[in-house]
Each structure stands twice: as structure tokens, then as C-alpha cells.
């Protein structure tokens, strides 16, 4: 007689014996998520932001709910290993005996599957594969929320720096404006110098307002990810280990949730194909039954007791169903082919995204070196032009204004490049599956599920 296997699989654990070694998912354990603060900290860094987002965001809670739904599907499939006990009452008339008439009876029946050529086993494996797929989807959701939150922090950090640079530019131009007005009052320069300076000042003020507006927008976006209405100070620190995230020769597909989900889909498709084949084979079951008549109007009531019982070994096999079983088997085979292609596609997509991010990161890193050199040259030019304007009188104010703005334009460009570089490094983390380890999300309970590496 078949019974349920001892090595049960739940939504919270995947054992190596149930999946091919290279397809094993990180185990998910846990029951209670830690209590999260409802108030933003005084200074928020990128790691705190990511941890807060994954503990709060409803997208993860939605996927976790689907995970536990699929876990119950395993219990449903596994229940077919156990006996099915039914009880009921028959009410009706009979003419099967000399005492014909009303003949009610209680019936207690049992059905136990003895051997089914893998029908129940394949159903259980398919259900377990569904759980594995949802586990991978939980990891996808966690990685996505972590990536998007970290990217929002990077944008806030970038615009905070751009606002500071814009404020410094406005202050520098105001100082030049004071000097221009002073020299004009002394008759040492024309009114056009004052007008030109005022024009540059208004342009700098407009730039500052634009950057401040973008900063406010990204702070609002970050607040949405964190579930906090009011954000306080956001730290500009970007952890040094994150800057090395693109230095990966080849991604480890066992760490990438999208690939893990595709592998689980292959397991599910294979189990469904096995089940389709098993449907063409017999099912052997034991079916005992007990009947208790409430009157004497049953067959052979003179010699038989009111309580009667019987037991049968039933062998049942489909002979012809219009080609439906064959079509189901063929469909399952095509699904398996599609699932295998999906694995290759997920691997290719991960490799492509990593390669794109790596190449762009190298280009931006070289660009930063050039921009830094450009900024140094612009600062030297400013010193020379200011000396020529103030002491020798051989340099027009327009050249001084241009040199000043060249410096700050170089700083703006450098900061924008740094923000792009940090965003690419986060993309590399996401593409390689290192997002959880980079932000210390492993061995941590996240919305009732503990993530283990």
C-alpha cells in the first residue's frame, strides 16, 4: 500500500534530493517578520533604505501569499496517497426481495490507492515544482524592490550633490557680480559687464531650482518605496564593496532568481509529462464498504444480517477517450520543450544585461578620469583669467564668467557620471543575483519568509 513519503517539502524549505543540484533554490524559512519602525531615521543610508523597503513593500507580501497558496497545493496532491473515507445514507424503494418497499441504509466506504504507475507521485512533483517557482518569484520580488529602492537612493544622493554644486556656482557668480558692480561704480568697467554677470546669475539660479525640483521628486519616490511620509537626511555614502559589483567574469546562474524560476518551470513541465504518460496506465485500488440497513426490506433479509460488508480490489484503466490522453501527453511534451528554452533564454538575458552594464561601467570609469582632468585645467584657467582681469586688465569679464561656469559645468557632469556609474553597479548586482548578499538580506526574515543563502 502506498503512503506519503517521509521527506515532505514545504514552501519554506527545498532539499537537494528533490531538485537537481545546480537547480537548488536558496532555502526560505521563517514565520514572523521583525517589527519595523514607522518613523524615518535621522540619517538614512542606502542599506537601511533597502532593508526597510523589503520589509514593508506590499509587492513582496503579494508574492509571499502566492507562495503559501502553492504550498497548500502540495498538500492537496499528497492527500491522494491516503485513504478516502466516505459516509452517507441511501433512501429509496426496492423490489429486489419478497419484502419490497422502503429500504433506507447507512453506507460507509473506503478507497485506498495501491498502485497507480506514478500518477500521484508526478502530481506531487509538479506541485513541489510550483512551490519552487514561487520561491524564486519571491526572490525576484525582493531583488527588484531592493534594486529600485537603492537606485532611488542613488538618485537622491546625486541630486543632493548637484544642488550643492549649483548653490556654490550661484555664490561664485554673485561674488563676481559684486566685483563687476564695484568696478563699474569706480569707472573701471562698462555697464555691459554688470548686465552679463546678472544674466549668468539668473541662469545659475534657474539651474539650482531645476536640480532642487528633481531632488524633491526623487525624495518623494524614495518615500513611496519606504512607506514613510517624511524623509529626513539621506546619507551620500555609497558603500565601497558595491563599487566592485561589476567585476564578475561569469554569472552564477544558481544565484539568479529568474533562472531559478525557469529551472523550476522545467521540473514542473517534466512532472506534468510524467503524469500525462501515467494517465494511460491502470490504477489499482482497494475499496471496502460497509452497509447497514434500517429495515428488513433488503435482499435475503431472512438469512443475512442488517450489517453487510464487502471489499474489492479495483483495477481501472482508460481504453478510449477520443484521443484526449494522447493530446494531453503531446501538449505536456511541448511545454517541456518550451520550459527548457526558457531556461536558456533566462541565462542569456542575465549574461547580456551583465555584459552591457560591465562595458558601460568601464566607459564611464574612463570618462571620470578625463572629467577630473578637465576640471583641474578649468580651475587653473580660472585663476589665470581672474589675475589677468583684476591685475593686468588684459582679460575681459566675459572670459572670467566663462571660465567660472566651465568649472561648475565640469562638476555637474562629473557628478552625473558618478550617479550613472553607481546605478550601473546596482544593475550588476541585480543581474548576478548578489543583491541580497550586498545589502545583508540573507539570514533575515522578510515578511514571514527567512532568506538563506
From TrEMBL:
The keyword Protein biosynthesis does not apply. Keywords: Cell outer membrane, Membrane, Transmembrane, Transmembrane beta strand, Transport. One of its GO terms (molecular function) is efflux transmembrane transporter activity. It is found in: Cell outer membrane. Transmembrane segments: none annotated. It comes from the Bacteria. Pfam families: OEP. Belongs to the outer membrane factor (OMF) (TC 1.B.17) family. This is Type I secretion protein TolC.
